[in-house]
C-alpha cells in the first residue's frame, strides 16, 4: 500500500521508489558478494589445490570481492538508468537481454563441436533446435495475446452536444506478470541452495542437492512459486475495482454485466482465469527444457527463463521503436502498421 501511494504522487513518488530500489539492490549485492567470496574460498581444483591463491588475509579477500562486485552492480544499475532516460526501452532489461544474446553464438559453436566429436547425436540436436523454435513461437503468441472484454459507453448530453454511444474493449494480457514470476522463483530457490553449500551436516546437504535445477523437489517448488508470484504480481499491478470505478465514472459498462461491483467481480474472474493460464504457460516454458535436456543427457541448454527474457524484451523494444518512428516520421517499419495507415488514408479519400 505504501508503494502504491508513492506511485500516485507523480515524479516525487517515483524518485522515492527508485531510491528504495537502489538501496535494496546494494544490500542484496553486499550479501551475494560475501556469499560468492566464501564460495570461492571453499572451491578446489581437481588436484586438491584451492582455486583462490591470494596474499591477502581471508577477510581482506572477502572485503575486496564484496566491494568489487557491489561497485560493478552499482555501475551497471547506473548505465541501465541512463539507457532508460536517454534511450529506448528499459535499460536494465536491455542489459540482461544483451548478456543472454551475447552467449548464443558460443552455444551454437559448442553444439557443432559436440556433434563433430560424436558427443551429441545430430538427431538430438535437430530435435532440440526444433523444440526451441516451437517454444519461441509459443512465447511470442502468449506475450502478444489479449483477451478483449467488450465495453459499451452510454450516450449522454453535455450542453447541446451528444457524447458517448461508442463501443470499445478492455484488453487483458494472458501473461500479465511477464517474466517476473520465474525470475523471483529462481532467485528465491537459489538462496537456500547457496546456504546449504556452507553447512556440512549430511541431511542439510541432501536437501540442498534436491534444490539444484532439474531435481524433482526443485521443479515442484519452482512451478509452485511461479503460480504464486504470477497471481501476486497481477494482484499488485492490476486493480479490477479501480477499473470498474473508472469505467462507471465515464459511463461505460460491459454488456450483460451491471456496473460497479458486478463489473469488478467479472473482470477479476476473467483475470484470474487468464493468470492461471499464463502461470501454466510460464511453468511449462521454464521446466520443460530442464526435463527434456535431462532425459536426453545434453551437456548444455538454453533455459526457459532466458528465452522468456529475450523474447519479451525483444518484443517490447520493437514496440517502442515502432512508436518512436510513428511519433517522429508518422511511418513505422512493421507491415501491419503500414497497412493500417494505407487503409486509413484510403478511407479519408
From TrEMBL:
State where the protein is found.
Answer: Membrane
The reply on keyword Flavoprotein is: no
Q: Hey, what's the signal peptide range on this chain?
A: none
Keywords attached to this entry: Membrane, Protein transport, Translocation, Transmembrane, Transmembrane helix, Transport
Extract one GO cellular component term from the record. membrane
Family annotation (SUPFAM superfamilies) = Preprotein translocase SecY subunit (SSF103491)
Question: Transmembrane region positions?
Answer: 20-39, 59-80, 92-112, 124-146, 183-204, 216-238, 270-292, 298-318
The record's listing under PROSITE patterns reads: SECY_2
The residue stretches assigned to a coiled coil in this entry are: none
Topology in the lipid bilayer is annotated as: Multi-pass membrane protein
Biological process, per Gene Ontology? protein transport
Coarse class of the protein's main subcellular location: membrane
Record's Pfam families? Answer: SecY
* Record-linked NCBIfam families: 3a0501s007
Q: Which family does it belong to?
A: Belongs to the SecY/SEC61-alpha family.
What name does this protein carry? Protein translocase subunit SecY
Its organism's taxonomic lineage begins at: unclassified sequences, metagenomes, ecological metagenomes
Amino acid at each position: 500500500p505504501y508503494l502504491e501511494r508513492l506511485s500516485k504522487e507523480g515524479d516525487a513518488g517515483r524518485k522515492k521508489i527508485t531510491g528504495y530500489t537502489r538501496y535494496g539492490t546494494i544490500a542484496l549485492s553486499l550479501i551475494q558478494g560475501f556469499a560468492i567470496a566464501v564460495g570461492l574460498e571453499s572451491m578446489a581444483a581437481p588436484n586438491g589445490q584451492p582455486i583462490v591463491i591470494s596474499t591477502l588475509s581471508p577477510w581482506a579477500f572477502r572485503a575486496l570481492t564484496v566491494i568489487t562486485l557491489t561497485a560493478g552492480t552499482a555501475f551497471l544499475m547506473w548505465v541501465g538508468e541512463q539507457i532508460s532516460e536517454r534511450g529506448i526501452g528499459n535499460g536494465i532489461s536491455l542489459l540482461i537481454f544483451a548478456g543472454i544474446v551475447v552467449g548464443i553464438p558460443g552455444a551454437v559453436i559448442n553444439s557443432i563441436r559436440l556433434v563433430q566429436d560424436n558427443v551429441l547425436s545430430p538427431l538430438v540436436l535437430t530435435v532440440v533446435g526444433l523444440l526451441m523454435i516451437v517454444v519461441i513461437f509459443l512465447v511470442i503468441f502468449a506475450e502478444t495475446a489479449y483477451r478483449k472484454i467488450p465495453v459499451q459507453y452510454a450516450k449522454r448530453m453535455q450542453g447541446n452536444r451528444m457524447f458517448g454511444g461508442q463501443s470499445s474493449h478492455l484488453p487483458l494480457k494472458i501473461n500479465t506478470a511477464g517474466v517476473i514470476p520465474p525470475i523471483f522463483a529462481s532467485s528465491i530457490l537459489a538462496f537456500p541452495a547457496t546456504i546449504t553449500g556452507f553447512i556440512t551436516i549430511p541431511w542439510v546437504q541432501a536437501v540442498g542437492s534436491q534444490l539444484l535445477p532439474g531435481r524433482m523437489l526443485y521443479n515442484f517448488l519452482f512451478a509452485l512459486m511461479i503460480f504464486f508470484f504470477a497471481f501476486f504480481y497481477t494482484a499488485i499491478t492490476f486493480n479490477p475495482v479501480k477499473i470498474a470505478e473508472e469505467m462507471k465514472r465515464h459511463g461505460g459498462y460491459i454488456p450483460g454485466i451491471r456496473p460497479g461491483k458486478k463489473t469488478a467481480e467479472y473482470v477479476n474472474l476473467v483475470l484470474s482465469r487468464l493468470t492461471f493460464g499464463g502461470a501454466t504457460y510460464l511453468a511449462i516454458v521454464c521446466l520443460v527444457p530442464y526435463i527434456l535436456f535431462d532425459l536426453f543427457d545434453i551437456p548444455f541448454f538454453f533455459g526457459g527463463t532466458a528465452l522468456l527474457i529475450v523474447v519479451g524484451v525483444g518484443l517490447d523494444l520493437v514496440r517502442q521503436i515502432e512508436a518512436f518512428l510513428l511519433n517522429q516520421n508518422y511511418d513505422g517499419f512493421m507491415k501491419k502498421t503500414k497497412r493500417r495507415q494505407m487503409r486509413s488514408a484510403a478511407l479519408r479519400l
